[in-house]
Amino acid sequence: ARREGELQRNLAALGRVAGGVAHEINNLLQPILTFSRLAAERADNDRDREAMETVLASARQARDIVRTVLEFARPRNLGGIGIIADPVTVIDKEARVAADLAPGMKLTLAHTPAGNRPIVGTRAELGQIIANLIKNAREAMEDGGEVAVTTAPAPDDSALELCIADTGPGMSETTCARIFEPFFTTKEFGKGTGLGLSIVYGIIRRWGGTIRCESSLGAGTRFILTLPYTPETS
Ligand code: ADP
Ligand code: MG
């Protein structure tokens, strides 16, 4: 519990610093994006055009990274924790959308109907959680693989239990221990920001839920989340 409080405080502090830096960089990127695009369009020879397209591509990549950081740093409306009446419907839809981005990947969905009762949360953030977890599965499994999404009431019936399991390469114990830290990534620069799982962690904790990861090298990865039902329905 103490380590968790510490992690939450670190997250908040890091978010503020990173958000400030990201905001400034975002402003500086605007003229680079605009004028490199114009210069590429107006170039009268291939060499200059290719050079400007390279600048533009780098600036776009930087903008995408900055957007992820800004999203992470965005102050959340703490009073605004809502209710999702039909969470399984949202999970099912978001999983299909996220899996569509990897045509070679197989998606299986299995839901226990009794699980689909109102939970604490917002649809947009639940969507963000699913998108982040399936994106990671997709990125871990280069060609194909399988993702299984299952939902059921937790054994004590206080929460919806959501499992997202993939058949990817899994993680070492040292990686597994750090995945929820902001900016922890094993991906090369430009491919990963290391913010996806810390965003997911922050949302789940705010809802009073839990997230844990079971993974080992060669054995795939499984994320198990508990999403608390609202008091009336638990
Ligand atoms: P990013 O995806 O930008 O690296 P994340 O916070 O989403 O940041 O994930 C952190 C790290 O956790 C990843 O770099 C990867 O090493 C590991 N990871 C997350 N999900 C999986 C998965 N499904 N399979 C294997 N490794 C994973
Ligand atoms: Mg990620």
Bound molecules: adenosine-5'-diphosphate, magnesium ion
Number of helices: 6
**Estimated helix fraction:** 40-55%
Secondary-structure element order, N to C: HHEHEEHEEHHEE
Shape: globular
Largest sheet: 5 strands, mixed
Class based on secondary structure composition and strand pairing: alpha+beta
Structure description:
- With about 230 residues, the chain is an alpha+beta fold.
- It contains 6 helices and 7 strands.
- It has a 5-stranded mixed sheet, with helices on one face.
- Helix 1 packs antiparallel against helix 2 and helix 4 runs antiparallel to helix 6.
- The model has no long low-confidence stretch (mean pLDDT about 90).
- The protein binds adenosine-5'-diphosphate and magnesium ion.
Q: What's the layout of helices and strands?
A:
Layout: H1 2-42, H2 46-73, E1 83-84, H3 87-100, E2 106-111, E3 119-120, H4 123-140, E4 146-153, E5 159-166, H5 173-176, H6 196-206, E6 210-215, E7 221-228
Parallel strand pairs: 2-4
Antiparallel strand pairs: 1-3, 4-5, 5-7, 6-7
Helix pairs in contact: 1-2, 3-4, 4-6
Bound molecules: adenosine-5'-diphosphate (ADP) and magnesium ion (MG).
Defining key terms:
alpha+beta; globular; binds magnesium ion; 7 strands; 234 residues; binds adenosine-5'-diphosphate; two-stranded antiparallel ribbon
